[in-house]
Write a structure and sequence with these properties.
Chain lengths: ~270, ~325
């Protein structure tokens, strides 16, 4: 018997439709406290849809979301942030012409008693934060458009750290990044784990998520089809499983006994 | 000794560099350059009378430009300033002349109608999901139609009391003080308030704004409404200047408002530009007409010169961009 309060985030039978297309078909997804979950699957599997529901951007048609044991029918972006859920999306959540500090504080600006912005305070906080996450050389006044892809991810993760997010959802954080930038993003994820935070790392590249994840959840055509603990599988196993799902829609039999969906008491 | 002079020259270079990188530097330089050139070209330019006329002509355009620039900063466009100013001026004049209401009520009625037009524009964009170009084009056409219906195509006279906006307070007319007041207000609103920063952010990346939990539709609605108020105040200024509510007031003014914004350094792609740039843009645009009149240039050529200046300004402002749409 699953107790929702044991998990930071827990979803029950989430369904999401876009017209005639059913993007999620009853998804039960969970993220533990201080856990990094690798959410993997092919393009169009429903990874980003699930992330957007958790971040309050999409409203599910059916199902429930539990956050720290609290039940919700739906979340709004504001509510998700209040609950400590932060979505980091490849470049899309940054205003490119705006400086780093404005992007970090967007929607949660520091204001004085008359409602005027405290610009100096925000710049100083942004500078401190950039130092903490290893972006020392970059002044907070720098417009985001001048940063490389890896640094942009860093700014978004800094935003999550600044506002003490408990769950950071990274949606395809390594797409179109160079090898060194991928390494940088993985360091950010390690940093989050060390701070006691949880993370959902969405990708279709097993080799990017494997070094940082504790558990892997495989989603296919709107359904979660398998879950594995890191200790039970290698990157090659996961690749083999994903290829099999793509070709035949099934998981090779030898992996079924370690699939957490089939292991009694683990789900 | 040498070290100290090196240090001060380094500091001067840094200050100049910071000024050049500031969003308002180019509009300010254009303003200063044209001011000097005009003073050289025409001896009448610097006379107090001409400067007063110039300031009175700039004031309503500056108000239109402030409203228009806020809309452009959000990545939208507003084609309704001219019609909205005419409608607001007409309603204020009717309230004062036909309904014999006090001046303050007439002014408030005018501003309220401007706010209403802006609010409807905002609703059409955010709720009916009509692109701002089309929504405000409808407001341009319908607004002018309303003015013609209300006035029967005839000017409304008897607005001497509106002269409260043109009378001097100290060295300057009231409406010029109002223009300075709104310049400062616009600066504070767009720089030091959340609302102002969200206007920029919507133009920069609306998706990012929505993902941040900000109610982008509400910001748009509020901004269109405020812009409508600005246009209405410009309409009252025009009534005051002419002492007549003329039904064709503001005909084509939307183009001057857009031109002033562009000359003021506001990028039509949204999200970039100084809040006070449109003030310089409006002044420069008015100054060009003013100095050409002083020089006795055929009025038909004035349009060509304005067009050329606009192209030159746009070229200066878009340097460094990889491409534009």
């Amino acid at each position: 018997m699953v107790r929702e309060s044991e998990y930071l985030v827990f979803t029950k039978n989430l369904v999401k439709r876009f017209g005639d297309v059913v993007a999620l078909k009853g998804v039960n997804f969970r993220v533990g406290y201080n856990e990094v979950v690798g959410l993997v699957g092919d393009n169009g599997a429903g990874k980003s849809t699930l992330a957007k529901i958790l971040a309050g951007i999409y409203v599910p048609d059916e199902g429930e979301i539990y956050v720290k044991g609290q039940r919700f029918r739906r979340l709004t972006p504001q509510k998700a942030r209040e609950l400590g859920i932060e979505l980091v999306h490849q470049e899309r959540t940054l205003a490119e012409d705006h400086p780093i500090w404005r992007n970090i504080f967007m929607g949660r600006e520091i204001t004085g008693p008359l409602g005027f912005l405290r610009i100096k305070e925000m710049k100083a906080a942004a500078e401190k934060l950039l130092n903490e996450i290893g972006l020392k050389a970059i002044p907070p006044d720098t417009p985001v458009k001048f940063l490389s892809g890896g640094y942009k991810q860093g700014v978004q993760i800094a935003r999550a750290v600044q506002f003490e997010a408990d769950l950071v959802i990274l949606d395809e954080p390594t797409i179109q990044l160079s090898i060194s930038e991928v390494h940088r993003v993985l360091e950010y994820v390690h940093g989050l784990k060390k701070r006691g935070k949880s993370c959902v790392f969405i990708t279709h590249n097993i080799y990017h998520v494997y070094p940082v994840a504790d558990r892997f959840v495989i989603i296919d055509r709107g359904k979660i089809v398998a879950e594995f603990r890191k200790v039970d599988v290698t990157p090659e196993d996961l690749t083999h499983i994903l290829v099999s799902i793509a070709r035949t829609g099934t998981i090779p039999e030898k992996y079924e006994k370690i699939n957490l969906l089939n292991v009694a008491g683990s789900n | 000794m040498g070290g100290r002079s090196n240090r001060s020259s380094h500091q001067a270079t840094e200050i100049l560099k910071a000024f050049w990188q500031h969003e308002v530097s180019k509009p300010f330089i254009a303003f200063l350059g044209l001011f000097i050139v005009s003073a050289v070209l025409s001896p009448a330019f610097l006379t107090p009378y001409n400067q007063r006329v110039l300031a009175l002509q700039t004031a309503p355009l500056a108000l239109l430009a402030f409203g228009e620039s806020m809309i452009i900063l959000m990545g939208s466009i507003d084609l309704s300033p001219g019609s909205t100013m005419a409608l607001a001026g007409t309603v204020a004049a009717i309230t004062f002349v036909h309904y014999k209401q006090p001046l303050a009520i007439a002014f408030l009625a005018g501003i309220a109608i401007g706010a209403l037009v802006g609010f409807i524009n905002g609703l059409l964009v955010t709720k009916a999901k009509i692109p701002s170009f089309v929504a405000t084009l409808a407001a341009l056409v319908a607004g002018r139609g309303m003015v013609l219906i209300l006035t029967g195509g005839q000017p409304i006279v008897g607005l001497r009391a509106f002269g409260v906006l043109t009378m001097d307070i100290g060295p300057l007319p009231t409406m010029v003080w109002l223009m300075f007041f709104f310049t400062v207000l616009n600066f504070f609103l767009l720089t030091y308030t959340r609302w102002g920063r969200y206007i920029y952010a919507i133009g920069g990346n609306e998706e990012a704004v929505r993902c941040s939990g900000i109610n982008a539709d509400l910001i748009k609605l509020m901004t269109f409404t405020l812009a409508g108020c600005y246009y209405a105040i410009a309409g009252l200024m025009m009534d005051a200047r002419l002492e007549v509510a003329y039904p064709w007031t503001g005909w084509g003014a939307e183009l001057d408002a857009i031109a002033s914004s562009v000359l003021g350094g506001i990028q039509l792609t949204g999200g970039v530009g100084s809040p006070i740039g449109p003030f310089f843009g409006a002044y420069v645009l008015t100054l060009i007409t003013n100095v050409l009149i002083l020089m006795g240039v055929n009025p038909f050529y004035q349009w060509v010169v304005k067009g050329i200046v606009l192209v030159v300004a746009a070229i200066a402002l878009t340097r460094g961009l990889r491409y534009v749409k």
